[in-house]
Amino acid sequence: MRSRLAARSARLVLAAVAVTALAATTTACDPKDNGAADSAAPAPSSTSSASSSTTGGSSDSDSSSSSSDSGSSGTAAGTDDATKDGYGQSCGTNDLDFTVTSESQAGGYYLVTAKAKSGITCYLDTNTPTVSFGSGTDGVASPVGQGGEDPIKLTGSTAAYTGISPKTTNDDSGKEFENVIIATTEDDPNPAELKLPDTATVDKPIVTNWTTNASEAVPRIV
Q: Which of 100, 98, 103, 102 is nearest to 124 (CA)?
């Protein structure tokens, strides 16, 4: 790693010398200007700049600090991952893997299971998922307040559950859908569209809160 940084620094120095020599042959410049230009040469990235700043001093100092430089690089990479969209402490929809099963209780409902993707640890900070069938307002599921653990930490095999009842009316009305849209928050930029195990007739749908107990995710109108 340090040999690559040293090689990169050497290339930057040679490039700066070449630029300075070219400028000297085309126009007369104050030596102070050349010094300012050299000092103002931009670093290729913040990581490279930070790493280059630690390469000054004696070779003994470089050798003794190699292990600490390596640790700093690991921390920076972790920080970058934590700041990506949809990643970090709060679970974004694209942090999660979902499965949908059809259940027969309470007149029939869909049980959605959510788990963090491999290598991700996050929290479901919002108690109730945003669920809709299609893009119309009549397909938006109303929360019924059942279940609910806030927040839920998802990592590894830990799962969270929510139950969706697509139809709560007792007549033959409703629209048919083969997919359901789910998001961890109302403003999540990456909602997931999940294939249903069967075609759902939708009319005034409801949804439960997230819970770690699947038995608490049976949607009922209270």
A: 98
Of 133, 112, 125, nearest to 187 by C-alpha is 125
Question: Within 13 Å of residue 157, how many CA atoms lie on the same side as its CB?
Answer: 0
Burial code (b: 16+ CB inside 10 Å, e: under 16) for 11-30 equals ebeeeeeeebeeeeeeeeee
* Tens of pLDDT, residues 130-161: 999 999 999 999 999 887 767 899 999 999 99
* pLDDT tens digits along 24-76: 444 444 444 444 434 444 444 444 333 444 444 444 444 444 444 444 333 33
Assess contact for 183 and 192: CB atoms under 8 A: yes
213-to-23, 31, 187 alpha-carbon distances in Å: 71, 73, 26
- In the chain, the largest separation of any two C-alpha atoms, in whole Å, equals 89
- 160: which 2 tokens? 């969270």
The percent of residues in the chain predicted with pLDDT above 70, rounded, is: 60
- Give the span between the Cα atoms of 140 and 207, in whole angstroms: 9
